[in-house]
Structures are given as structure tokens and as C-alpha cells.
Design brief:
7 strands, two-stranded antiparallel ribbon, Thiol Ester Dehydrase, Chain A
């Protein structure tokens, strides 16, 4: 399962040199992940309304070349397997010239929104992912 999202680099995401601050790549991963879920008809808000929350368990980011003010970035988000207890989303970020800027992975868990105890991946989400692999 894969989706792509384009975003313009905004001024507030950069430092005085016009380079995107490293922390913003984590936000870009989230934008891509949320957009992917929306495109596949199962936005995260719907999963949460059904009683399951998706906390971030871990984040990896591998920086290659910095994005700059004026760039348009392309975020490629990918889920490669049906989750059971955790959802792994791989991301790649490219600039407008197709140059790879950053790669990363976000791991999300599943918890019951009332008890805050771990639960398995909701069947609806597993089906959407499985149908699109």
C-alpha cells in the first residue's frame, strides 16, 4: 500500500539559512501517513472514533540532503505488510528534482481508547491494508 503527497516547504520550517529544520521531517512523515490513510478511505480519525488509538512507538529518520525554502517535496508513504500488534510505515521524501532527501520509518501501536491497553490491529484497517498490498 502506497501513496504520495506533495507539499511546499514553508518559511517557518526553515532556519536562517533557508534549510528545513530536521524536526520537520517527522511532521512530513505524519502528513504523508495521514494522507495515505485518507486516500484509502480509512482516515485515522475514523479508527479513533471506533475506540482504537495509534500512539507512536518509534521513529527513525535518515537524512541525506536538506530540503530548502522554495522546494516542493514529495512524500512517499508505504505500508508493506498487514499489521497485527503494530503498524510500520516507511517514508521517503524527495525534492522537486527527484533527489532523495530523507528516509524513515514510523512504528505505531494500537491501544484501546478507554483502557489504554494494547489491542490488535482493527480488522477494518487490516482489511484495507491487505486489499491494497
Amino acid at each position: 500500500m502506497q501513496a504520495e503527497l506533495e507539499l511546499a516547504v514553508r518559511y517557518y520550517e526553515t532556519d536562517q539559512m533557508g534549510i528545513v529544520h530536521h524536526s520537520n521531517y517527522i511532521r512530513y512523515f505524519e502528513c504523508g501517513r495521514s494522507d495515505m490513510m485518507q486516500k484509502y478511505g480509512l482516515p485515522i480519525e475514523v479508527i479513533e472514533q471506533e475506540g482504537v488509538m495509534l500512539p507512536v512507538v518509534s521513529v527513525e529518520a535518515h537524512y541525506k540532503i536538506p530540503a530548502r525554502m522554495g522546494d516542493t517535496i514529495r512524500i512517499v508513504s508505504r505500508i508493506g505488510k498487514v499489521p497485527m500488534a503494530k503498524l510500520e510505515v516507511d517514508s521517503e521524501i524527495y525534492n522537486q528534482d527527484g533527489v532523495l532527501l530523507c528516509t524513515g520509518k514510523v512504528v505505531l501501536g494500537f491501544i484501546d481508547s478507554v483502557t489504554r491497553h494494547p489491542v490488535r490491529c482493527p480488522q477494518k484497517l487490516a482489511k484495507v491494508i491487505g486489499d491494497n498490498l
